[in-house]
TrEMBL record:
Coiled coil residues, start to end: none
The organism of origin for this protein: Dyella jiangningensis
Enzyme class, first EC level, given as a word: oxidoreductase
Claim: Oxidoreductase is one of the keywords in the record: yes
Entry's family note: Belongs to the UDP-glucose/GDP-mannose dehydrogenase family.
Name assigned to this protein: UDP-glucose 6-dehydrogenase
Length: 445
């Protein structure tokens, strides 16, 4: 089928590449001319495992193309996706300016029946606003063209985006038009060969489904961080508690890892946006407020532990940091917990020597050159001249380090394990102090 996608970010580029891989003829449009230029040269602007080969292969075969020109792209697509950003605006609600701008552009060029599909994460009621924006532009032109607007939220995770896109858990189609649903069923048929993953519903329910999914996952994480904070105080080990509760299939092992707080471009903004939506309709979403508040405090956790270990004397100290990205297998630093930690350390007068397998360039782009940040080439280089080590992203490369070597390199040997990667006993036996998240048992010894 002929598909057009507005936005070549994490969602647009991955969706475009995967749809091209399935034999569709896909045109990706972006207003960022530099990005489009790089994509045409085969350079992938983000680190996403498995993405580069499918983009290159499908671009080379002509199944996938990139452009900055909306008019011919809208002409091309039987289906036009909107996959642009919806960042938080000043009060935390989702800013729809990019989505509505694309909607107006579509209205300015629409020339045949088209299914307009919104993939961005948007507040309930946005499909109506997109429909109205397109209709208004058509009216201005005096054009009468049929179209449908569908809500088709995306559930991919960064780091696993290609796999999630090729093998989705579910495909939500929010539409009251049978004609549009049939077009999308046809598009997604190759993704449903094993079993039908499609759930058809109305637009508003589809829009809310996306926020509900992210809010539920964020709630699980904040819940576990709360249990970790209790465990620490009562002398229990949250890692044992996690395994104890995860074995109940009603709870499950997924998304109950305590840590240095959740980050990324979705959970923080989506929990906030849902809370603002609720407030806007006169409902005080207390649970969502608590999820946010627990996460906010959790992001200060490692700083507090480090400060306590160094008796509040952070000025002139050097902290080695392993991990910068908000999670492994990405170079994305949006709302990353590493940023809260580094910024608190700098404010207290400490220096940071950091290593991340992929996020070095992005960190440099955000913070530039500064005296209190050294971006290192490997994990052990970050330890040179450092007092203590903090781990904030659970990259595989950090899973089994040489603790004796670490001890030998640190001025005040201690590990601050922000993702509970290590066995406290093994760390302590190597002569290092161990601080994890909610590991009360190790603190008691
Ligand atoms: N990142 C994720 O893991 C993820 C997963 C599911 C859903 N989402 C949601 O999907 C949406 C997109 O997220 P993202 O992370 O891909 O964003 P992103 O910031 O990585 O990319 C957005 C792209 O849209 C482009 N753009 C902006 N205005 C445009 C216009 N008028 N025409 C064409 N292109 C335009 C930007 O230049 C940018 O390249 C958001 O609503 C987000 O919440 C994101
Ligand atoms: O048990 C856990 C699991 C995750 N995290 C943290 O939660 C954040 C988000 O992780 P993850 O959900 O894996 O990454 P995202 O790429 O942000 O994906 C989420 O956000 C996307 C955008 O909406 C959705 O599409 C995905 O389904 C949803 O998982 C990261 O900081 C993780 O460190 C924890 O602290 N504990």
């Amino acid at each position: 089928m002929k598909v057009t996608i507005f936005g070549t970010g994490y969602v647009g580029l991955v969706t475009g590449a995967c749809l091209a891989e399935m034999g569709n003829h896909v045109v990706c449009v972006d207003i960022d001319a530099g990005k489009v230029e790089r994509l045409k040269k085969g350079e992938i602007p983000i680190f996403e495992p498995g993405l580069e080969p499918i983009v290159k292969r499908n671009y080379a075969s002509g199944q996938l193309d990139f452009t900055t020109h909306p008019a011919p792209s809208i002409e091309h697509g039987q289906i036009v996706f909107i996959a642009v950003g919806t960042p938080p605006d000043e009060d935390g609600s989702a800013d729809l300016k990019y989505v509505l701008s694309v909607a107006r552009t579509i209205g300015q060029h629409l020339d045949k029946y088209t299914v307009v599909v919104n993939k961005s994460t948007v507040p309930v009621g946005t499909a109506d606003r997109v429909r109205a924006a397109i209709a208004e532009e058509l009216e201005k032109r005096g054009a009468s063209v049929e179209f449908d607007v569908v809500s088709n939220p995306e559930f991919l995770k960064e780091g696993d985006a290609v796999e999630d896109c090729l093998r989705p858990d579910r495909i939500i189609i929010g539409s009251s038009s049978e004609r549009a649903v049939n077009v999308l069923r046809k598009l997604y048929a190759p993704f449903n060969r094993n079993h039908d993953r499609t759930v058809v519903m109305d637009e508003r329910s589809a829009e809310l489904t996306k926020y509900a999914a992210n809010a539920m996952l964020a709630t699980k994480i904040s819940f576990m961080n709360e249990i970790a904070n209790i465990a620490e105080r009562v002398g229990a080990d949250v890692e044992l508690v996690r395994q104890g509760i995860g074995s109940d299939p009603r709870i499950g092992y997924h998304f109950i890892y305590p840590g240095a707080g959740y980050g990324g471009s979705c959970f923080p903004k989506d929990v906030q946006a849902l809370e603002r939506t609720a407030r806007g309709v006169g409902y005080d979403a207390r649970l969502l407020g608590a999820v946010e508040a627990v996460n906010h405090d959790q992001k200060t956790k490692l700083f507090e532990l480090i400060s306590r270990h160094l008796d509040g004397q952070l000025k002139g100290k050097t902290i080695a940091l392993w991990g910068l990205a908000f999670k492994p297998n990405t170079d994305d630093m949006r709302e990353a917990s590493s940023r809260n930690l580094m910024e608190a350390l700098w404010t207290a007068g400490a220096k940071v020597r950091a290593f991340d397998p992929e996020a070095r360039e992005e960190t440099h782009r955000i913070y530039g050159d500064r005296e209190d940040l050294v971006l290192c080439d490997n994990a052990y280089q970050a330890l040179e001249g450092a007092d203590v080590l903090a781990i904030i992203t659970e990259w595989k490369a950090f899973r089994s380090p040489d603790f004796a070597r670490i001890r030998g390199m640190l001025g005040s040997p201690a590990i601050f394990d922000g993702r509970n990667l290590y066995d406290p006993v093994a760390v302590e036996e190597a002569g290092l102090a161990y601080y994890g998240i909610g590991r009360g048992r190790s603190l008691r010894r």
